[in-house]
Amino acid sequence: MEMTRRGFVSGAMAAYAAGATAAPKIEGFNETAPIQGGNGWQPFSDKKVRVGIAGYGVCHFGAFFEFQHHPNVEVVAATDLFPDRCAKLAEIVGAKRTYPSCEEMIDKEKELDAVFIATDAPSHADLVIRALNRGLHAASAVPALFGESQLEKAGEMIEAVKKSGKVYAMFETTAFRASCYAMRKIYEAGGFGELIYSEGEYFHHSVDQIDSYKGWRKGLPPQWYPTHSNGFYTCVTHKRFTEVTCIGKPSILPKYNNGDNAYGNPYGSEIALFKTEEGGAARMAVAWDTPGVGGETGRVYGQKGCFTVRYYGQVDITGWPIDRPPLPPGIVDPGHHGGSHSYLMDDFIRAILLNQKPCVDIITALNTTVSGIYAHRSAVKGGETLKIPAFTL
Known about the structure:
The chain is an alpha/beta fold. The chain folds into two domains: 12-173, Rossmann fold (3-Layer(aba) Sandwich); 178-318 and 361-387, Dihydrodipicolinate Reductase, domain 2 (2-Layer Sandwich). It has helices at 12-16, 83-93, 102-108, 124-133, 153-164, 178-188, 227-237, 336-339, 341-354, 362-380, and strands spanning 49-54, 73-79, 97-99, 114-117, 137-140, 168-170, 195-203, 241-250, 267-276, 281-287, 295-302, 306-307, 386-387. It has a seven-stranded mixed beta sheet, with helices on one face. β11 and β12 form a beta hairpin. The longest helix has 19 residues, at 362-380.
């Protein structure tokens, strides 16, 4: 399927894209951070994973996770619904073969071990299920599934993972931002104790001005795209939200006001208050219509200390391994989405070759995504408190 998510910026990214036409500047891609490449990286396998990549689209997303530069990867196939984009994707990632659709690549490419699905959001769940049922490892862009009508697919995805025994990973960029990585390491070591309160924000003004396949972004309910905020709890703790109440703010923008869009959605911003599995609270905000504010950020506050983007609170971090590890030599990712792209890709490849869980596995992916769908449902119901389902393998 055709991918139409984030665009890339000019300069280093344009050069890296080998002549591709620059798309509009978009939140996330302009949030750069250095990565640690080469020095200190240790090989972990002599095997290669044969990968197919689906989706170039408006923002060239399928090319920007560095599969083509990882020593344990061979990119064997590429696809996009638009022939010119498909050809460009294949050129950049070095794919030997191209296919007119992701479905055809999954069904017909005989050399595949894994696929990366960087397509339009409504297509992710079906393509992931298709790949897993064919016996392929699968990674997808966010969200794992899309909206009320796809809630039933959560069980199908879990069943496909169980039956196939293959890895599924959702490439939620929050998980490998430097701040979230440090939060996770401190949390796992007991440095925070149980979390009392967490915050996450995803402010993306005029998100629906980005071109999208069949206009799926137009009027999008904010909490249907919740992962960049919710990840500041779920990707720190790997725990879930149990309840939600959410306030939706009607927008001054005509595309949202009075719900005059394909989703009947009147809200340009939705602020959710979740109860967490630990008995704490989390405030997670998603907004499309807040001018002058942009970015993906979060904070955690625990019984023993806290972590924000500005300070570490009471936690003594001396000697703690909170810096992201080195990546393989040859990785040239300029560090967009806070330098998370290549770490997500490397985490997926390690999970396959080392037979381990990826950071954002099927359960964390669903806990991060489905909670947002219930948050929007709460907003529509005037902030009614709703129970959120639990997912287990």
